[in-house]
Known about the structure:
Elements (H helix, E strand, L loop, with lengths): L3 H8 L3 H9 L6 H14 L5 H8 L4 E6 L5 H16 L3 E6 L4 H13 L4 E4 L6 H10 L2 E5 L10 E4 L1 H14 L5 E4 L6 H15 L10 E2 L6 H19 L6 E4 L2 H13 L9 E6 L3 H4 L5 E4 L2 H15 L11 E3 L2 E3 L9
Parallel strand pairs: 1-2, 1-3, 3-4, 4-5, 5-11, 6-7, 6-8, 8-9, 9-10
Antiparallel strand pairs: 10-12
Helix pairs in contact: 1-2, 1-3, 5-13, 8-9, 10-11
Amino acid sequence: MVTIKDVARVAGVSPSTVSRVVRGQGKVGKKCRAKVQKIINEMGYRPNTNARALVSRRSELVGVITPVLHKPFFGSIAHGAEREARKERFRVMTLNSLNDTDAELDAVSSLREHGCQNIILHSKYGDEEKLAELAEQIPGLVFISRFMPSIAPRCIWLDNVSGGRLAADYLYKKGHRDVAIISFNSQNQDQEERIQGVKQGLAGKGVNIPDENIMFPINEKPHKLGIQGYCASAVAELYAKGAKFTAIVTYNDEMAIAVMNALFDMGKSVPEDVSVIGFDDLDIAKICRPALTTIRYPIVEMAEYATKLSLSLTSKEPEGFERTHLFMPTIVERNSVKDIN
């Protein structure tokens, strides 16, 4: 196995110079850097990151903890984190929590055991006091997609209320006065804020959404029914109780597409019979039929920013610690909303 000392001996430089070339940091002359890099490539040297972590008590690693990485939204967080981490020659390690608060804490502990000081955590249900304690212990711990007042400078979050208002304003502009909302039956801050935004946006124009038009379908076995069954039951219930609506706002794009499928199965056409608007602007929103009008959640950019903030907080000259980090949604107009003016 080729060591850093072997490379240094062949190159005629010190091991510390080789280390600076490998890390891309520190002062090394252009000719010397090129020579050392050429020898590294020829000898096939690979740095022992575990050994370096043991020596420095820090690994060049960014940890990303999300509930379920296979979901496109959470995969986008990992993608954004990796794009930014690569710029600084850091690697990314991803872990799933399955929305289990104990599993979240275990994942944080596991990353710390690997010498990881830079962690991007998506935690919707973790106790704020406990998370604040972790933030004091871990210099590069940053929270994405959640705002917690006690640790606001470590939070990167979206203005979900504004997102809801954008959806309401857009539907109103297109002539819709009878609106239904389909969301999850869970205690989710994002969900509550989006519904609040939709209701505020329409109320400001003199339009109220009846309680029976806001659906939180209760499924005893949601893991068996899945998102399609969940949304199909919501749409069926709206029609069964005679709710009046020309448009449906959903919690996210995945639900919006499931709602459109349910409407198609009932012989309805989107947007001719019912308009549908989503939230997130996932890639699938562009290629479903009809292409989905949605509220864009800039999650990749937020994950890039979260990673940049985390690395800044563990650098020699931390930046931006006392700032707040709020992102704004935008509307993406496609083909799932009809103008009925």
